[in-house]
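Sequence in, structure out.
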Amino acid sequence: MENTLQTVAVRPNRRRDRLLTVFAATAVALLGWLVAAPLVGVELIARSGSTEQRVTPVAVVVSTLLAGLAGWALLALLERLTARARTAWTVVAVLVLLVSLLGPLGGGVGSAATLTLVALHLVAGAVLITGLRRTAAR
């Protein structure tokens, strides 16, 4: 009975902590965009094929939220499927972050845009990986 009560008491905090992590990563990425684009004046433009597109604050928020929610969903799934969910999730999350860097490295228009976009990926990824990993069942 005690274990059941303890588990029930922990779950709302875990959900809250995961939600706060996703929002924190989104806020940090948006703050990075605000500093780089309007304040410093970096033109954040990404190329996809022959099309160039400005990276807007909406794009930063939506992409970070989607990445965070996908990471959360994968962690929750792995917790149901394996006893080593924390380790498996961390490996997958780091690999996904590394693959995500290919976008700005290959598509950033200009060195300032490329460096800024890489930094946004790294900062959002660091917050998501450390925050969600911390909430994982051990």
